[in-house]
């Protein structure tokens, strides 16, 4: 068995990625803050016949993230694939609001750097040495497409952080050439589960599987936004009713 670790695993895309890779025989380690959410996903994936386990941790708490990844390795074996796709909660957004481009301040960027860029660096650097030693592995890092391919000025403080993360992963892709380890960035321009065919979690999970198996592209852009995406603002799950 090989092991996939999903950092930032949630009930939509993370669940679908886990199910897609589980169908190919991968054990799945699920890492995020909510034990309840993780356990529900783990229980569902376990029904497919693979091992799927929850390892609760906050990616902004680096020791906790390290401990979760270590526990996953101890329980399920070496991590062969890392998928990193954290997302803020409503509580996060209340504490560190999204800021449009003309109002960005240093303070408004710091929390976003912690969640996206620094958490990503910590997760990747935990698994990368082992992958390089084994001469095989896949790193897939996901963010909103405002990280580069799409302009989204209403969330500029986030895009500063995700833009840095994207740039690093594209450079990592180049640096890993010939090592047997593959890294790619996934830029998501979609309201997951709310739009057309390309926005559906299962369709997106198939695209992640293709990235892992074909191992050629430095970046995949999933683009399925409505024309009024700037006026619409955030996905429904980030808007309090």
UniProtKB/TrEMBL annotation:
- Name used for this protein in its record: SDR family NAD(P)-dependent oxidoreductase
Organism in which the protein naturally occurs: Streptomyces silvae
Checking Pfam families in the record gives: adh_short
Classification via InterPro entries:
NAD(P)-bd_dom_sf (IPR036291), SDR_fam (IPR002347)
């Amino acid at each position: 068995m090989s092991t996939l670790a999903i950092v930032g695993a949630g009930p939509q895309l993370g669940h679908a990625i886990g199910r897609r890779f589980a169908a190919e025989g991968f054990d799945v380690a699920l890492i995020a803050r909510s034990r309840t959410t993780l356990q529900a996903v783990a229980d569902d994936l376990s029904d497919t016949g693979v091992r799927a386990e929850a390892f609760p941790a906050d990616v902004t708490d680096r020791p906790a993230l390290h401990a979760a990844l270590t526990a996953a390795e101890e329980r399920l074996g070496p991590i062969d694939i890392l998928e990193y796709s954290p997302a803020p909660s409503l509580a996060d957004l209340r504490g560190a609001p999204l800021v449009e481009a003309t109002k960005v301040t240093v303070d408004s960027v710091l929390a976003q750097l912690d969640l996206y860029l620094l958490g990503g660096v910590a997760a990747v650097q935990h698994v990368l040495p082992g992958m390089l030693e084994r001469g095989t592995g896949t790193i897939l890092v996901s963010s909103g497409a405002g990280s580069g391919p799409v302009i989204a000025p209403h969330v500029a403080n986030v895009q500063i952080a995700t833009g840095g993360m994207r740039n690093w992963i594209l450079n990592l892709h180049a640096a890993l050439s010939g090592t047997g380890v593959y890294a790619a960035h996934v830029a998501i321009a979609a309201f997951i589960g709310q739009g057309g065919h390309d926005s559906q979690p299962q369709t997106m999970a198939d695209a992640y599987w293709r990235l892992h198996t074909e191992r050629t592209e430095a970046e995949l852009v999933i683009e399925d936004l409505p024309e009024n995406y700037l006026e619409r603002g955030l996905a429904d799950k980030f808007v309090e009713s």
